[in-house]
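call fold(seq) -> tokens
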Amino acid sequence: MSFLALNNINKSYGTGTNKTEVLSNINLTISEGEFVAIVGFSGTGKTTLISTIAGLIKPDSGSIVLNDKPVTGPSAERGVVFQSYSLMPWLTVYGNVAMAVEAVYPEYSKRQVRETTEKYIELVGLSHAIQRRPAELSGGMRQRVNVARALAAGPKVLLLDEPLSALDALTRANLQDEIVRIWEHEKKTVVLITNDVDEGLIMADRIIPLNPGPNATFGPEFVVDLPRPRDRTAMNHDETFKSLRSEITQYLMKVGIQESADTKGNVIQLPNIKPNTASDFDNQAEHPKRTETITANQPEPDPLTPDVLKPYQDNLGEHKYLEYFNLSKVYPTPKGPLTVVEKFNLNISKGEFISIIGHSGCGKSTVLSMTAGLNAISDGGIVLDKKEVNDAGPDRAVVFQAPSLFPWMTSFENVALGVERVFPHASVNERRDIIEYYLSRVGLGDALHKKASELSNGMKQRVGIARAFALSPKLLLLDEPFGMLDSLTRWELQEVLMEVWTRTQVTAIMVTHDVDEAILLADRVVMMTNGPKAKVGKVMEVDLPRPRTRKSLVSHPDYYSYREQLLTFLEECDQH
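ret:
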């Protein structure tokens, strides 16, 4: 017999021509004490679904039944933890949790309130911070307070709406383990909304995809028949885990990812013209002008041929194209100098794609910002194409987590800002062709003249990627560019990035905390030790065939070996 049942739930917003069907014919039964993960992506209606179960939103039709009683509104029986922390900033950890206890149990004495509050604060490992206020807590600690507050109300069902998605990878993994431990201790029924397949596999008994809307419906359920406790590294040897992970990933890609190439069949022309940052720009007149023409219905040129887009890119594979020697960064602090990065040494070949991975605070972004010329070098140096890096310049294009677009400008205009700077010698038509080519390549052929303020986060990041490639830089620097996006959008943009990078062969460095992303994109993965005094710990060659796709990657026999090497390194760093 089911403990929680959703029966034919339908929910829409708006009326008439403005009506949007969000959820359609949602049916689900959950047993008492079960841990169910619903994998939903941006725009699928996942928050609407969790809010409906919580009783915060009424469905248009259908019913929700909990323990044989209809759900008609919010209740302490259903504790909710959302992505945002929603803590009272003027209250301590104790005060935030006690507030929930007092509201649900008005009959409790002061001693009972104190005992219950302290019990759940201890359960989430925050006894040492019981008198701190939210401003004094890290993001992970704030989310622990949210979990403690929800549990202290004694709910029968714990509803988790992407509670960990805003956290760094290490904090997220630790809290996943913490929530599973609490679930096993408290014997609660848990419904987790997540966009992370691995999170579902680590935590849940069942994973159920919520297919993209409008009219979002449930896909087939996947039973996670893996023994507990589940160890992230050990699971790389489990064939059931590998098969299940591949099956879920491929299903989600099938129903979610749309073709990102330009589909209008327009002729796209890219002028054969060098940027003013090219090494031999002064000799450009020696190169006759030609264009590449691509249509949607004719075979595209071999993307692995170096001169497809950039015939002036000589000496691909040059071993010391980018050289770091004893690179160090020291910040002054009230307690004395703090060395964040110390003696970072690395040589990168021309046309190589490098991923830098490590825990938060290990100096990954510091190395990238020094390479971009945005952060002063304390000691050592960086040499790019035989010139020492000592300031910022358009020969190094940077893509950050937030693309920093001008909201009042169109996609075209945002890309044009950089193109006009590095191609001042080109004609208006040539600059237009460069801009349109790269926006089309990232799937924005239909959104050239949409303002940035009208674009989704994923589309904004596509503009950022197009802008970076359109500069024809010597070096492409990517600082966790997909870190703020949901998994499906991240997968899609990884494919876009790989496709355009394969054509350009631009030397690239990506900072990431995502193990799968690092392997998918890179020729080599550079693993950094924990800070302070972070440096290169290990370098892993990724000998997987290109072009790569996530679908082929999860099926490759060597993939999980690479994955285990990275996970083992990160776990060892965590223990020191």
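Confidence is low (pLDDT under 50) at residues 259-267, 282-312.
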